[in-house]
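Hey L., structure's done. Input below.
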Amino acid sequence: MKESEIRPEKIFDEYLRLTKNDTKTYFSDSEKKIINCPACGSNNHDLWAKKNDFKYNICNSCKTIYVSPRPLIQYFNSYYTDSPSTKYWATTFYKVTENARREKLWKPKAKLVKDLMLKYQGSNLIKNIVDIGGGYAVFDEEISKIMDIDITVVEPSVHLAVICRDKGFKVIEKFMEEINDNDLTNERKCFVSFELFEHLHDPKDFLLNLYNCMNSGDLFIFTTLSGMGLDIQLLVENAKALSPPHHLNFLNPKSAKELLENCGFSVLEATTPGKLDIDILERNKKFINDNFWINFLDYANEDEKDKMQNFISSSGLSSHMMITSIKK
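Output:
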């Protein structure tokens, strides 16, 4: 898989341009607060990068990368509800890339989630999925094809909520932090969220509220960006993944496990099954200052690059991270 197949450069760059403009509109005069590491709580950090007037720190204790000072949550709520870049993502980016993302991302992800549910639930399979930040609901369409499952989508964006409803899904138009157990079925559930965790204003608050909405034995499966991912570590501020105000938190497998356990979850597995790290580096080679990686990208053939990508993923060093956890 190539990055261009799921994020065409021209369309993705336009999205980033709109995001940069929205940063000025929604955040230039925002009130900000200095925060400790959102994973482990340490205040021992160094400045890691600056981008679009946002500062990223790296925690010296757990290596989480995070934005601080951080604008207060009301600015993000306003931004995510109805900003031009959010609308562009919903009405243009998703439409143009939907078919490719369905084949390359969502069909495999639906199968993987089903396999994880079978692995950890066996014959006592959960019959309800709650998709937090369901976006275009393509995952929900795909998993509905391979499982007998009831789906609820939690989606605060007015544009995306309409799309999910038009596809026939039950939608709760709130942020997860506003959800209570009265909004959800009392039956056992598997909560999922994809590429959401990096956006959260307060990951711990999100997890604690989620935990309170779960029954014993409920699963929480999510994907997010790992700050220890090879492409992010090499490209730093030139990594497109570093895109404030969207991406505020870059945990890693070890720091995510620590945070989840501190919130009461048991972590069943933490992996980095990414496939794009080497491709992203090739597309951004001009920003790399490390001679090994510059020479490797020039020297290696496709088979050798595939082997390196597999090594990166299996070693927990891809920037795409997947966590499976449970409420005991």
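Residues 84-121 form the longest helix (38 residues). DSSP finds twelve helices and 13 strands in the chain.

-- N.
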